[in-house]
Amino acid sequence: MADRSVEKNEALRKLHAVLIRKLSAQDLKHDLYGKGQLTSAEMDRIEAEQTRRRANEQLLIALEHRGANVLDVLVECLKEEKEANKDLIKAIRKDRESGKLLGDGSFPFPAAVQPSHPLTIPPPPAEGVDAPTIKTAYKMESKPRGVAIIINNRNFTCGMKDRDGTNRDAESLSKLFPYLGFCTKRYDNLKGKDMRAKLEVVGKLDHSACDCLIIAILTHGIEGKLYSTDGDLIPVEEVTKYFDGNHCPSLIGKPKVFILQACRGGAYDYGVEYEATDGSEGSPSEAEVKELAEKQIEHIVAKVLDEEEVDAGYKQALPTEADFLLAYATVPGYVSWRNSEYGSWFIKAFVDVMYEQAKTEHLMDMLVEVNRRVAEDFKSTVGKNKQIPAPSCLLTRKLYFRPGL
Fold first, then answer.
1. Which is higher by pLDDT, 312 or 92?
2. ∠ CA 230-228-217, rounded to 5°
3. Rg (the chain; Cα; Å)
4. What's the CA angle centered on 130, arms 359 and 356, to 5 degrees?
5. CA-CA distance, 168 to 384, in Å (whole number)?
6. Dist. CA 362–CA 138, nearest whole Å
7. Which residue has the higher pLDDT, 71 or 253?
8. β-strand partners of 150
9. Any idea which of 79-83, 297-301, 324-328 has the lowest mean pLDDT?
10. Which of 384, 400, 262, 273 has the alpha carbon at shortest distance from 331?
11. Burial class for 140, CB neighbours closer than 10 Å (0-12, 13-18, 19+)
C-alpha cells in the first residue's frame, strides 16, 4: 500500500500543472465529499477561495492526503461531464498507462481497485462482542462493500409539489454510505426512462468482488409504485427485478438493501409545507390539511389508477427471491413526512442510528430502533400526525456492516 501511495503522489506531482489549469474544484467538491475524499473543513476552504486556481490548489492539497486510488475517484467525478472534461480525463489516463492506479473506468468503480477507507474510521467492536459466523451472518469483508446508488427526486415537472428538504436526505446518505464502505453514486431529478436506465446499468455490473448492494430512492409515491420527476410510475417490483438472480447473477446470495423514502398511500408527500411553516401565521388548520389530502387522493386515483388497481393498491410489493430487504419509510396506505430543514423523519432517524450502531449491531436490529425513534420522537406540527416505518425483510442471515473493518 505504501508503494501505491508513493505512485499516487508521484502522479499528482506530474499532473499538477494540468490539474491546476483545467480542474474546477468548485464543481467537483460536493461529489468528492460524498465519496469520502474531502472533509467538511477541506470543502469549506475550497468554497472560500475567490479564484479558480486557488480553489484547485486547495483541492490538490487535500487529495495528497487521500488513499492510493484517489485518481480513480477523481476520474469518476469528471466523467459526470465527460465531454467537457475529456481532455483532462485523457491526460490523467495517459500518465497512468501502466494501470497501477487506474482501472478500466467502468461504473462506478474499477473492478481491481479498492477505494480508500472513509475519512472517519470507527474503532473495532468492543471487547466481548461476538463476531458473527458465516452461518448466521452475511459475508461483509470486501473493499468496497459494494455499490450504493441514491436517486433523489426533488423538482417535478408533472404538476406535483417539489420535495423541499430531500436534498438534506441525499446529502446525509451520500456521507453515510462511504462511511459504511460503499462506493456511492448520487443522481438528482431523474425522469422515468433515466431512473430505469440507471438501475439497469447497475444491475448489469459484475458484483462478484462485492458483498452487498444498496439502492436508496427518495421521491413521491403511492402504494407499490414510485414517481419519476416527469410523473412516470415505476413499480417497486420493477426496481428490485434488475437485481434478482435472472438479471444480476453476481448478487445471488448477497444482501440487497432498498431504502424507499416515499408515500405509500394516495396522498402526495406534501407534509413538508406544513412542517416548514412551523409557528408561522400562515400554517393551515387541521381541517384544511384533511380536505387537501382528500382532494389529492381523488386526483391521483382518477389520474393513474383504475378500479382493479385501487382494490389491490395496498398489496405488499416484495421481490420473489431471498436476500432482499425493503426499508419503507411508512406502512401501506399512509403518507411519509418530510421537513424542509432536516429532511424526512425516516432518513434522519436511519442515518443517526447507522452512525451510532453500525459498528456492532445488525441491520434489522437497527431498523427496529429506527422504527422506535420515528414513532416516538416525531410528530407533525399540524394535525399532530405520526408515522411508523415498515421494513420488509427477506434476508436469510444477519447483516453487519462493521464500517472500517
1. 92
2. 160
3. 22
4. 20
5. 23
6. 10
7. 253
8. 186, 216
9. 297-301
10. 262
11. buried
Backbone angles phi, psi at 105, to 5 degrees: 80, 10
Question: Residue 96: pLDDT band by 50, 70, 90 thresholds?
Answer: low
Q: DSSP readout, 111-140? A: TT-PPPPPSSPPPPPPTTPPPPPTTTB---
Which residue type, as a one-letter code, is found at position 360?
Answer: T
Residue 338: all three cell numbers together: 418530510
Q: Range with the lowest mean pLDDT among 19-33, 60-74, 261-275, 293-307?
A: 293-307
Residue 210 scores a pLDDT above 80: yes
State yes or no: cis peptide before 249, omega within 30 of 0.
no
**Is the separation of the CB atoms in 91 and 14 below 8 Å?**
no
Give the pTM: 0.58
Active site residues: 220, 263
Residue 7 C-alpha cell reads as: 505512485
* Helices and strands in the chain: count of H runs, count of E runs: 14, 11
End-to-end CA distance of the chain: 16
**C-alpha span between 91 and 270 (Å, rounded):** 47
